[in-house]
Amino acid sequence: MVLEVKKACKNFGGLAAVSDVSFSIQKGEIFGLIGPNGAGKTTMFNLITSMFPLSSGEVIFKEENINGLKPNKITEKGICRTFQNIRLFPLMTAEENVMVGVHCRSKSGVLSSVFRTKSQRKEEEHIRSRATELLEFVGLKDFAEVSAENLAYGQQRRLEIARAMASDPNLLLLDEPAAGMNETETDDLFQLIKKIQSRGVTVLLIEHDMPLVMKLCDRIAVLNFGKKIAEGTPTEIQNNPQVIEAYLGSEEEEEYA
Ligand SMILES: Nc1ncnc2c1ncn2[C@@H]1O[C@H](COP(=O)(O)OP(=O)(O)OP(=O)(O)O)[C@@H](O)[C@H]1O
C-alpha cells in the first residue's frame, strides 16, 4: 500500500468534517474521492498533507505513520498536491513557476545562491532542464516564457500539475483538476493523468466531473457529511443506491434552496 488512512476524524468545533474515514491506495492506482459539496474531501487532503492535525486516527504513507509531520516534510517524503483554487505565481513565467517546484528538492543553500558557486550554477542548470522536461510533459513547452497569468485556464491547471510533479512525488493529490475546464481541456487532462500514472505515480483525485472520474479512476471512495458511504470500482459506485441517494438528495436540496 502507498497510503493507508485509518479511522481519520477531524472536528472543527462541533462539526465533524471527517468522521471515522478509512481507505487504502495501492501503488500506481488512480483513486477518486468524491461526494457532494461539503462532504469533507478537501479536509481529507488537508489531513493527508498535514495542513491540519487529525483529531484522531492515522495516516500511513509507505508503511510510515506521517501524523504530525510538517507539510514540507510530507513533500520530502513524496506526497505533493494541487489546490482547488489555482495557486501559481501569476507574474512569473511558466518555466519559473516549475523551477520553484524543483527548487524544493535542490540542495543549494541561501549562501551558495548569493555567491553563485560553481555547484550552484550546475544545480541551476539541472533545475532549468528539469523544468523544461516537465513543461514538455504537460504540453506547455512552447509557453515556457509566458507569465502564468497570461495562460489559458486549462493551461494554468496543467502548469500547477507540472509544478507538483517537480518534487518527484510518489503520491500526487489533485483537488478538482477539471474545475472550469471545457471538454477539450478535460480530455487533455485525462490523457495527462494517465501519463502520470504510467510513470508509476499514484494519484488521489477529488473531482466533481463524474464522466471523467468514472473513466479515469481504478477505485473510488464516496464521502457524505464527513463519512465514507461507499468504496469500489466505478461500476460498483455508479450502481450503489446510497451513492445515488446522496447525489440526488443534494440536487433536490439545491433545487429547493
Ligand atoms: N478550516 C475550517 N474551519 C471550519 N470548518 C471547516 C474548515 N474547513 C472545512 N470546514 C467545514 O468542513 C466541512 C467539509 O468541508 P470540505 O471543504 O472538506 O468539503 P468538500 O467535500 O471538499 O466540499 P467541496 O466539494 O465543496 O469543496 C464543511 O462543512 C466545511 O464548512
TrEMBL record:
Q: Does the keyword Transport apply?
A: yes
MF terms from GO for this chain are:
ATP binding; ATP hydrolysis activity; L-isoleucine transmembrane transporter activity; L-phenylalanine transmembrane transporter activity; L-valine transmembrane transporter activity
Q: Does the keyword Nucleotide-binding apply?
A: yes
Keywords (A to Z) from UniProt: ATP-binding, Nucleotide-binding, Transport
Q: Name one GO cellular component term.
A: plasma membrane
Q: Which CDD domains match?
A: ABC_Mj1267_LivG_branched
Pfam families given in the database record: ABC_tran, BCA_ABC_TP_C
ABC transporter domain: residues covered: 3-250
Q: What are the recorded Gene Ontology BP terms?
A: D-alanine transmembrane transport; L-alanine transport; L-isoleucine import across plasma membrane; L-valine import across plasma membrane
The record's listing under PANTHER family reads: AMINO ACID ABC TRANSPORTER ATP-BINDING PROTEIN (PTHR45772:SF7), CONSERVED COMPONENT OF ABC TRANSPORTER FOR NATURAL AMINO ACIDS-RELATED (PTHR45772)
What protein name does the entry list? Branched-chain amino acid transport system ATP-binding protein
